[in-house]
Amino acid sequence: MRSLFNKLLAIVGSFALLALPPMPAQAQNATAVISPEQLAKIHAGNDKCLACHSQAGVEHPPLAGMDLKKLRTLIRDADAFYASDHQRLSCTKCHNEGYDDFPHAADAKDNTTTCSDCHSKSAAIVDKQFANSVHAKNLSDKFTCTTCHNPHLMRLAAKLGDPQKIVAQDNRVCLGCHDSDEQFAKFAPEKKSRPLIDDIHSWLPNTRLHWKHVRCVECHTPAVAAGEPISHEIFNKEKAEKNCVTCHSANSALKTRLYRHLVKEEEHRLGFANSIILASSYMPGVTRHPLLDALILIAFGATFFGLLAHGLGRIIAHYIRRRKNHG
Ligand code: HEC
Ligand code: HEC
Ligand code: HEC
Ligand code: HEC
Ligand code: HEC
Ligand code: HEC
Ligand code: HEC
Question: Which of 115, 134, 222, 275 is the most exposed place for a label (fewest CB within 10 A)?
């Protein structure tokens, strides 16, 4: 009865949320104070770069004689940039003065600001974890922060909130190499062939469905304490998680991982945790409803015993056939 009440409350709650006006993206990301005038100045400065580095720039070049073929590969999407974590930065905060004029200075590229120049505190933690990851160990100098993080597009998981969007952002990175012969070969030219991602995980049912709903880093990084971000220590096959129950259980590890921002947001808005997980079952086994849990168990069990009975039937049939043939 109580859980039914909770469910109703969650449903009513989500309607109440729908009625609220959506927060403007700018306000949502306001961590540091910045005036509208300052922001307008930043945008005006960036417009100078985007006059060339955009679709419009390629179609209507503001200057004659540019290498348009190369420029076409250097387009930045202004909308995506202004929705990213770095939306309030000038292009020139990271790309130095060498780019102020065109043609750009020959050595301009050598002086791009790195992540750790600005994020020394978090980079110090990440650096240590990353140093222990499979990529740092096997591909050390080729693999850097920007191999995975596109500074023009990246969004903090906490800001994305929706697990589907988080999975899409993070798995696009891993699959970008592990599901692409071309990219993989760029980083490991000495490997004759790329291990197929679905073959490696053939023990996992419906791999493609899993890639859509759960992140690679869920199984390939160490356990995290509640509230902690996921570690950058990517595990090899020996240490990776293989246990279904880690996720498919009432006490799913995903609550402190993929779903943690959802739970926090829910808690923040509605005053209690788990309501989303209760109200909309994101995955089988996590739903806390005891009856549902039991039904899922029975369903799994039925399949198992079905297979067992089928196998046993075949063995008996085989035995009888042999007896007939010999007798
Ligand atoms: C007048 C057009 C124009 C403007 C304005 C412009 N760029 Fe470029 N940029 C180009 C072209 C064309 C290239 C292709 C390579 C080349 O010819 O240097 C390029 C190359 C680049 C590269 C790649 C360099 C490399 O070596 O791969 C970066 C980064 C870059 N620009 C950043 C900027 C930034 C930041 C701004 C604004 C401060 C800016 N650009 C303004 C036309 C422009
Ligand atoms: C937070 C830092 C940061 C900001 C802000 C930023 N960039 Fe970049 N940008 C980088 C880094 C780092 C790279 C190199 C990525 C890599 O290693 O492939 C890059 C690459 C580029 C390239 C491609 C260079 C190449 O050789 O492929 C272009 C063009 C570019 N940025 C333009 C811009 C423009 C235009 C803006 C502003 C709208 C901007 N960037 C804002 C950090 C930044
Ligand atoms: C020029 C300095 C600079 C560089 C270089 C830079 N960042 Fe940032 N980054 C910032 C600033 C400033 C913010 C906060 C933006 C805001 O609050 O609107 C930020 C925000 C972020 C956030 C979101 C954190 C939060 O609390 O909002 C992440 C994650 C992040 N950066 C990662 C990176 C990574 C990865 C790189 C390297 C590819 C990088 N940054 C390079 C200045 C930089
Ligand atoms: C193998 C790919 C990969 C590399 C390389 C990588 N990252 Fe990440 N990074 C991720 C993923 C995936 C997440 C999302 C984790 C999460 O949701 O907590 C992330 C999250 C982050 C965050 C946000 C953490 C938070 O508070 O939610 C920061 C900051 C960050 N990375 C910085 C870096 C820096 C700095 C480097 C380079 C030393 C780096 N990353 C290298 C994949 C990578
Ligand atoms: C830029 C390409 C690239 C990206 C992005 C990338 N990887 Fe890799 N990864 C590789 C290559 C190449 C190897 C093979 C390294 C070797 O053994 O020589 C590898 C190795 C691995 C291995 C270890 C294989 C072993 O030998 O045990 C795991 C696990 C792995 N990656 C997981 C991930 C995960 C998870 C992500 C996303 C967070 C990711 N990778 C992102 C290229 C990439
Ligand atoms: C459900 C947990 C789980 C998920 C999700 C998962 N992996 Fe794995 N992965 C494993 C386990 C366990 C192994 C070891 C398999 C074995 O030993 O048979 C493995 C093996 C690997 C290997 C092979 C290492 C080798 O040398 O054989 C790579 C590469 C890899 N995973 C990458 C990824 C990528 C990329 C993703 C996301 C698209 C991903 N994994 C998602 C659990 C997972
Ligand atoms: C890292 C967490 C994680 C692990 C480990 C994991 N799963 Fe999943 N699994 C999920 C998620 C998330 C879904 C997506 C559920 C959805 O929304 O449909 C899923 C979906 C499934 C489905 C599909 C249900 C359907 O709708 O078709 C099956 C079956 C399944 N998992 C079985 C397993 C088995 C068996 C294992 C162990 C070998 C396993 N899973 C390990 C997270 C995990």
Answer: 222
Instruction: Report the 10 Å Cβ neighbour count for 278.
Output: 20
Distances 142 to 111, 127, 147, 152, 260 between C-alpha atoms, Å: 18, 15, 8, 20, 32
The CA 134 to ligand 4 mean position distance, Å, reads 15
Q: What is the pLDDT of residues 63-114, one digit of tens each?
A: 999 999 999 999 999 999 999 999 999 999 999 989 999 999 999 999 999 9
Identify which ligand lies nearest to the alpha carbon of 241: 6
Single pTM value for the model: 0.86
Question: How far is residue 281's CA from residue 291's CA, in Å, rounded to a whole number?
Answer: 13
* Spatial distance between the Cα atoms of 280 and 278, rounded to a whole number of angstroms: 6
Whole-number Cα distances in Å, 106 to 46, 68, 72, 100, 111: 21, 18, 19, 12, 11
- For 271, the token pair is 């005053």
CA 174 to chain centre: 9
- For ligand 7, say whether the CB of 248 is within 6 Å of any of its atoms: yes
**3-class state of residue 139 by DSSP:** helix
Tokens of 39: 């922001």
